[in-house]
Structures are given as C-alpha cells and as structure tokens.
Design goal:
Elements lengths: L12 E3 L10 E2 L2 E5 L2 E5 L11 E10 L7 E5 L2 E2 L1 E6 L2 E6 L16 E4 L5 E10 L6 E2 L4 E4 H35 L5 H16 L7 H4 L5 H26 L6 H20 L2 H6 L1 H24 L5 H24 L7 H41 L5 H6 L13 E13 L2 H6 L3 H21 L3 E5 L3 E6 L3 H24 L7 E17 L2 E7 L1 H16 L3 E4 H6 L7 E8 L8 E7 L2
Parallel strand pairs: 1-5, 17-19
Antiparallel strand pairs: 2-13, 3-4, 3-5, 5-11, 6-10, 6-13, 7-12, 8-9, 8-11, 14-16, 14-17, 15-16, 17-18, 19-21, 20-21
Helix pairs in contact: 1-2, 1-9, 2-4, 2-9, 4-5, 5-7, 7-8, 8-9, 12-13
Length: about 575
Amino acid sequence: MSSAPRPRAADGTLDLRSWNWSDGTVALDGRWNFDDKPLTVPSGLTFGGSPYGSGTYSLRLLLPASSSTLALRLPIIGTAFELSANGQVLAQEGVVSPTPEGAVPSYRPQVVLLPKANEIDLRIRVSNWHDAFAGIYFSPTLGPWTQVQAQRDRAALWEALMFGGIFLLGLYFCGSFVFRAQNRAPLWFGLFCLLIAIRSTLYSEVIFLDAFPGASWFVVIRGVYVTMSLALVTFAAFLDRLYPELSWKPALFAATAVGGLYAAINLLAPVSWTTGLLVPFQIFLLAYGVYAMVTVVRAVSRRESGAWLFVSGLGVFLVTVVLDIGKNHFFGNIPSLVNLGTLAFLMAEALVVARLFARAFAAAERFSADVQKINTSLERFIPREVLAFLGKKSITEIDLGDFSERQMTVFFLDIRDFTTLSESMTPNETFRFLNSFLEKFGPIVRDHRGFIDKYMGDGIMALFPYSPDDAVAAALTMRRALKAYNEGRARGGYAAIRFGIGIHMGPLMLGTIGENRRMDSTVISDTVNAASRLEGLNKKYTTDILVSGPTVQALAHRDSFSTKFVALETVKGRIKPIEVFLVLES
C-alpha cells in the first residue's frame, strides 16, 4: 500500500478526484460544515455552548470518475444520527430529534454503501439529549466496499480476540484463587480482567450488539461506565494485595469509595449524571494512576518480584489512557491506543501474577519436601506402621488418645550382662556398641514383617502384626546373626555377646499417651507384660529364645519350627500359668 499523504477536507469539501483507491482508504478528517459553520472532524460537538441539541454535519465529496462501489465506515456517533447522500437516506441509528421527547439514543458502528456519482453531498444529522459528549468521535472512513468491510472485520475480530483472551485470563486467575485462597491478589486481578474484557465489547466496534442486537443504548452506556468504575476498585485491591507492605490504605479506601459510588450512580441515576461526572472521575483515575506508579516504583527500588514488569505495563497503560482522554476531550486526530495499552498492561500483570504463583508453587514444593524429610525423620521415632494402625497418613494427624485394638505378637530382646559390659567402656564406646548392635539386628525385624516399637537401652521391643511365625523366624535369624557377630568380636579381641528373647501373642491396644505438648506412642496390654516376663525367664533357664504355649499353638507352620517344652510358669501379673517353650534350631 502506498505511503502517499491522505487528502483532508477543507471548507466543507474533500477532493478525491486524483486519489487512487489502490493506495487505500481515506479517513474523512478535516474541516466539515456544521449548520453552515466550519467544524473539524473527528470532533466533539456543542450546540450553542451546550452538549445537548441537534444539527447537521455536511461534506461535499469529489470522487474519481472511475470509482468502484464505495462504502463509508461510520464509527460511534453520539448519540443518534441519520446519514444521507445526495438527499437519499442511507442509514440511521436511533431517532434524531430536535427535542428530547422524540429522541432515541443508540450506538452502533455501520458500513454503508454509497451511490455511484462523481460528486456526493454527504449529510449526517445528529442529535444528543442524553450524553455529555456528542458528535463524531472517530474518523469516518471512505473507500472501496471490500477494503472498508475488511477494515471493519479486522477491527471486530481484534476486539473479539481481545475479549476472549482477557476474559479467559480473568477466568484462569479467578479459578486459581478458588484452588488456592490464601492469596487474594489473583482473585482481584482476575476480576479486573473480566471487567476490562466486558468493557472492550461495549466500546469502539461494540461487538456486544452483534450478540445482543436488541440491547438498548442505556445498557451499553451504563455498562461502559460501570465496568470502568469497578475496574478501578478491583485494580486498587489487586495492588494492595500484591504489595501489602507498600500499600497506603487511605488510597485503597478512596479508590474503593469513589469507584463504588460512581458505579452506583451509573446504575441508578440518570445517564446525564453518569456522563456529566466523567471528567471528575477521570481526574481521580489519573491521580490514582500516579499513586499506583509511585507504589510500583517503590517496589522496584525494594527489588520486589515482578516489579519491573508491573511498572513497565502500568506505564504503557497510563500513557494510552492519557492519550485516550485527550482524544475525547481535546479531539485531536490521534489514534486510539487504549486497547493496545490495556493488553500490554494485562499481559505484564499476568506475568507478575504468574511469577507470584510460580514462587508460591516453588515454596509449596520446598515445604512439601521439608515435610517429607520431617516425616521420614519422625518415622525413626514413631514407626509408619503405628500411623497405619491408627488410621493416619501423617504424623501431623495424630491426636492425643488415638488408639487401635489388634491381635499381635510381642517380641522382647535384651542384651545379657550389659551393665558389666558397659563398665569396661567409655560412654562414647557404649553408644557406639549399642548402635552397631542394633544396626545389625534391627533390620532383621523389618525383614520379617515386624517393626520396632521402642528401644529400651540394652534391648528392643518389637511387634509382629501379621503372624507369630514372623516373630519366631526373626528370633532364629537373630540367633544365627549373633553367632557371626560374636565371631567378628572374637577376632577383634572382644568378649562374646549373649541375648535373651521372649515372644508372646495376644490382644493389645496401640495408641498415644501423654499430654498436648508431649506425647508418645505405646502399647498397653497383658500380652506385653507376658512377653517381657518370658524374656526374663531366659536367665532362669539359661536359654536364649522362649515362646509361650499359646504362641506355639498359633503358629501357622508349626512343622517348620522345632520347640522344646521347658516349664509351666506363673509369670508375674498373671493368675493362670502359661507353658514355656524353647525354640530350637530347625
């Protein structure tokens, strides 16, 4: 497309006779006539010093002799218009009236076909009895129908894409808040996006009317101002939640009060109030924008995460807002860039919130890893099996008094003559010996589907929840491991170690005891006492592995184990005597 300078209207005439349409469309900018007086288009319009009244724009078009079918793309015209060419009415929006009683306002951009002629007397009758701003807000565009329609389609497509992208962005961040409600910044940003998305459909090409053609002008105009008012409220809340330490609460309260009040006026008061209060609201909007910029610059100076993105996006947005306000009030022939500025701002803020989520997710991952490490460490003190029997997934779920009643086999092991043995060692050597002993024999319990409930200085108490066969098999494995262990001690010049094991099966209660600030897991049952007494009887009979008669009877594979009756003993704490068996090598 050619970069040839576009012709401009002068003295109510636009001469296009030498214009080549292959160079593109022409904006009908310049000096039109309005009620026989010159007026620059695009422009705002006053009727004798008042924004309310009616009148007629006129422009004489001189066209090339060989022009193809031409079309005129009409923008939003405030607030009703009727277009005629050479006296023929081609289009209208709303009802133009010289009095308020007969006027019907309407906003709807149109593409209108012009009659074929070398000279066209173009007239646009307008009336405005509702809006504080009247006139042709944006440049009408003239050109071949295909080019003009393509421009309109591109503009509508851009606004539709902008609406869809920003709306989905808003839904995403609102949905993210639902799943992580601790931080409200994403919620306010999501609501801000939704409001901006809705407003974009009510502005410029007004694609809202394509979806709801019967909607009145009052719905559109109130929607424009309400969404703008509430966008200020949600943005102020977003800034406050994003940088709570830098936020100045009076500014938040002022933005909330002004935005909320203006939204209420837009909804309930006459539209003339809405548009009449627009300038004071825009002044406040700019003032709050300066405050927001100062806040974000402070965040940059403190090296807050994402502050550079925020200040860049906000800066672009504020510049385009100032340009848009200037265009509306001073009617300069500058392009409307507020949509681009809004998109740049929202993308920058989306990255800021995304970084916020990323940091929160990374922190959650670190926290989860720390919790996993803590749980793994705590399992060394409270076995995972205890949690399972109490119906808990994590130690954090355990409460004082939790318990479970089950049938289990209790296993006691005690190192013989440990007191005498420890007298020949230093405290450091004693601990090293105990840890090396338990490191060798503890895994044997786990290898046989048991778990160690507690260490008792020179011994252990283990539980086998599934079968007494597991406990007896573990005892035999320990006997063999002790032989190999003592052979190693003998080579190092150390005395042999002996132990005693007692095994008894029966009902028991596994639970937590203590108080709120200090608790422990424990097993309460006569079964525990009986197993402990059996272990002690090893000293009396000079044996190493003693099992109760009920446990032998409960063995699922009795033929796999060899036992020998030792005695009928009445152990301390029990009324009835129990049979005591020595476990032999199979």
